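For this section, I looked closely at the sequence of one protein beside the tokens encoding its backbone, which the following lines show:
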Amino acid sequence: MVLVEFSERKFLSLSAKQQHKIAASVLSFYHTSGKILYLQRYNAIAKLLNLYPMDQDFESRSNRYHHHLNRANISPPENMFLTKNISDKLSNHPFIGIDTYLCNLRSAHNVGSIIRTVEAFRLGSIFFSPTTPTIENSKVQKTSMGTYPLVSTQVVDPDTLINTYKKPLIALEIRSDAKPLYSFTFPKECILIVGNEEYGISENLLEKAQSVIKIPLAGGKHSLNVANAFACVAYEIARQRAAAMSPAE
């Protein structure tokens, strides 16, 4: 619960963690609303914490916010970060015909991140396997940073995907016979399959895939977080599209 009305005596009776948690909350309210009332309340709190009044540039505000979170022993997910106003707006770019199938993903954070990437690159629809967290999940919504209503999504079981959707299936999987991402040319329409964080893509889907691709890695781990790997592929798709649309030199 955020304390926005407080007496000096009551505030100073709180633990240091509680004090800094309140400071972070009031600062977040000010950043979101722009209301001078919250700035005045924050500066009153800062004085009680022996801090100088906060500078008004975004970098100073962000650093002060994370100072309070650190002192409150809070490790915030990205959706708790202050966001800089970079004039987010609805895009006029159409979604392209490259859809994504999320096969048995477990992490709602990974799903939300993938949704955010799909919207950023305007790839296409997202199909969830029945066990994958969907946009009904609050963690998916938060991690998508508000993009989940902008992307077409639905739950589809693997058999329906194979038998109903006629686009070629492209599997992103770590296999010795997989084609390196940099040497693979994506068709105009396809379904990119992304697999489970632990065991990858189910065998029945791999058997039906027209192509299997991988991201070549040099490190000892030989794998990336699934959302990070997806972002690499999404960028390569966008790069190929841009190159195809550019006039030949």
Q: What stands out?
A: The longest strand covers residues 98-102. DSSP finds nine helices and seven strands in the chain. Residues 143 and 246 are 33 Å apart (CA to CA).
